[in-house]
Amino acid sequence: MSEHHTQPTGERDQQAQETHNEPGEDLTQQDALQDDGAQVSTGSDTAVPEPAIPELVIISGMSGAGRSTAAKCLEDLGWFVVDNLPPALIPTMVELGARSQGNVARIAVVVDVRGRRFFDNLRDSLSDLDTRGVTRRIVFLESSDDALVRRFESVRRPHPLQGDGRIVDGIAAERELLRELRGDADLVIDTSSLNVHELRAKMDAQFAGEEEPELRATVMSFGFKYGLPVDADLVVDMRFLPNPHWVPELRPFTGLNEEVAAFVFNQPGAKEFLDQYAELLQLIAAGYRREGKRYVTIAVGCTGGKHRSVATSEKLAARLASQGVETVVVHRDMGRE
Q1: Virtual torsion, Cα 125, 129, 132, 135, nearest 10 deg
Q2: CB contact at 8 A, 240 and 317
Q3: How many CA atoms lie within 13 A of 34 on its CB side?
Q4: What are the angstrom distances between the C-alpha of 234 and each of 31, 188, 253, 281, 300?
Q5: What is the spatial distance between Cα 101 and Cα 36, in angstroms, rounded to a whole number?
Q6: Is the Cβ–Cβ distance between 148 and 190 less than 8 Å?
Q7: Are 142 and 65 in contact (CB under 8 A)?
Q8: Residues sharing a CB contact under 8 Å with residue 297, sequence separation 6 or more, in sequence order
Q9: pLDDT digits over 45-84, tens only?
Q10: Which residue, among 8, 101, 5, has the nearest Cα to 48 in the 3D structure?
Q11: For residues 74 and 108, what is the distance between their CA atoms, to the nearest angstrom?
């Protein structure tokens, strides 16, 4: 039997303790390196996973060419969007995303001439990102001088670089400033002849992948006597059905009550209306997706927003959810009486 196996246990433990507790010794280095330079375990056999580096898109381009629309499109697709971030802080933002444990997997940063004091730092930031192995793309929004002049004149705002000159002077200065970045862009989109919906469609085609972007719906019950919701895209009027308010045993309850809902949908035309309107919404939803609209608010009203509109909103939301539409139900005026 070898000497190692015949050595008493107490002596081995004492030697081990002395080895790991010599004054002034760097324990971190001792754990990390052996005499031959090989890396060894630091005390755990379980490997700590490397932080997932977020995917990065940098949006830039000419002022008035649609940077905000492009950024909003990515936001709707689930990207974490930061507008007008100084380029020197982009690596820091990526690092913070990596620490989020997967909660921030895709970051989009809008860089433009509003941050021109920091624009010179962009090249250094891009080199830093490349060194770290960050997957990044640059999207550059381009447009003709004529189109940009028309857009600035239509909103009656000066170009950020025109100073005391004309709009065309600001455009020329910006083109020169962005020339190198445009040459490095992975995707250049000319928006001269595009409207907002067409630009969104182009962004969707590049970043939505194979999955069609989700349409999200808010179904809101309300009472006409309290006014129309200002954010409603579609309004449904349920006052063509008898009002449970005039049924004494139902008056204290709301449309969330089973007896009230049964009363509403046992009325002539109620179920037919729900079926046909849900079918119509399928057609509308498809059109919204084609036009780049990602959010829709459907307001369902009755007199007080307590019975008919509440019951119908619940049923309609369930139909939409069954069709794959992410749906939230809000009862704006329930309880106001």
Answers
A1: 170
A2: no
A3: 5
A4: 66, 36, 27, 10, 8
A5: 35
A6: no
A7: yes
A8: 217, 218, 220, 229, 231, 232, 233, 234
A9: 555 456 678 889 999 999 999 999 999 999 988 899 998 8
A10: 101
A11: 7
Calpha distance 159→64 (Å, rounded): 9
Tokens of 131: 């060194």
Structure tokens given for 41 = 């375990």
Q: Give the chain's largest Cα–Cα span.
A: 99
Q: Which amino acid is at 140?
A: F
Reported as a single tens digit per residue, the pLDDT across 269-320 is: 999 999 999 999 989 988 887 776 777 899 999 999 999 999 999 999 999 9
312-316 CB contacts, 8 Å cutoff, 24+ apart: 312/221, 312/236, 312/238, 312/255, 312/264, 312/274, 313/219, 313/220, 313/221, 313/255, 314/255, 314/256, 314/261, 315/261, 315/265, 315/274, 316/219, 316/236, 316/274, 316/277, 316/278, 316/281
